[in-house]
Structure formats: structure tokens, C-alpha cells
Amino acid sequence: MTRLVLIRHGETDWNADGRWQGQADVPLNATGWKQALQIARCLKSTGISAIYSSDLQRASQTAQVLADEIGVPVRLDSRLREIHQGEWQGLLLGEIQVRYAQANQDRLRDPMNFSPPGGEPVAQVRARVLAAVQEILGLYPDETVAIVSHGFALAVLITHLIRQPFNQFWDQMPGNGQWITLEVMMQDLSQG
Q1: Is the pTM higher than 0.90?
Q2: Which secondary structure element, helix H or strand E, spans residue 136, and what is its range?
Q3: Which of 85, 138, 48 is nearest to 39 (CA)?
């Protein structure tokens, strides 16, 4: 059984503003850097063998602070990226609700099969994140691995691993600079 420490990156200015980041490559802000340092200090003695991170800078910056603290290199994996929000990237929720009223309603009605205009389908996010984690589990059986990613990507993964109905994934989204630890076996990743 592999112990996964699933970490959401520290805060960015867009997080603070409530903007939908998606795959826009927004860096950590001052609060985010402080959160990354707090993560590193708290997880320093947890026996982490490997650190994997989304290649977007807000995640990779958070991961690098942890890596510097524990002396383990960061492995970047684009499959751990946030959902691509297409035309919604950079917008506030209120702007999305006004400009894309019908699409927003479609998202709420059927989140698993929804794709923002010009963006990525939720099912595709789930598939790529699960594929990345499956590979990590194969490489690190019975070890502790940190994965630094994004709110939506982590919520989809956590919901899958704890076998919650997918429509409850919003309840599983960690806040900026938060993490959850789960004991995971390869069969936990089955697409059931």
C-alpha cells in the first residue's frame, strides 16, 4: 500500500481574487510562498520518498519548497495539471454566470460530462490524473509519495479514491496549501 500525500499548491493572486485559473500559469503570491514553507515544515519528517508535481508553476514552486526541505527531487508531470478551463480561464464566477449562463447550467447539471467552451472535459481530467497516479503507485509500492497538484484535479482524484459519488467532488477540494493523506492500493484506481 502506498501512502499518498495529496497537496494543493499555495495561493496565487488569482486564487485570492476568485479567478478561474485552469491551466493559466500563474505563480504563487506572498501568501502562497508562506503556505509552501508551512507545508514543507509540517511534512519534513513524514518519510516522503518521492515528490511529483504538476508542471504549472504554482504547483512546481510549492513542490520545490518541499523538495528543498526534505532533499528529494521534484518530478514534473503534466498529467497532474488543473483542468483546462478554456474561455473561462481568468474569469470570475460571476462573469462566467453572466457571459456563459447556459454552459454554466450545463456544468452544474452534468459535471462529469461537461467541458468549458474551448476547455477540457472533466472525464479527461479524471483519466489523466488516474493514469499518473497508477504509474506512481507502480514505482513506489509501500512508500510515501507527495503529489502537488490543483484543487479540481485533486478533488476528482480524492472523490474517486474514497468512492464518493462524483457529484460530491466539490466537497473534497482542499484549500490552498492544504493536504490530505490516503493509503492507496493499485485496485483503488479501477474505473468503477
Answers
A1: yes
A2: helix 122-139
A3: 48
CATH of the domain at 63: 3.40.50.1240
Q: Show the cell assigned to 141.
A: 509500492
Annotated catalytic residues are 9, 82
pLDDT tens track for 42-101? 999 999 999 999 999 999 999 999 999 999 999 999 999 999 999 999 999 999 999 999
Contact 90, 119 (CB under 8 A): no
Q: Torsion-angle region of residue 64: left (phi > 0), alpha (psi -120 to 50) or beta?
A: alpha
Q: Which domain holds residue 125?
A: 2-189
Rounded to whole angstroms, the Cα distance separating 149 from 56 reads: 9
Residues in the chain: 192
Q: How many domains does the chain have?
A: 1
Which residue do the cell numbers 481568468 mark?
A: 90
Cα separation, 112 vs 2, whole angstroms: 27
**CA atoms of 59 and 53, how far apart (whole Å):** 6
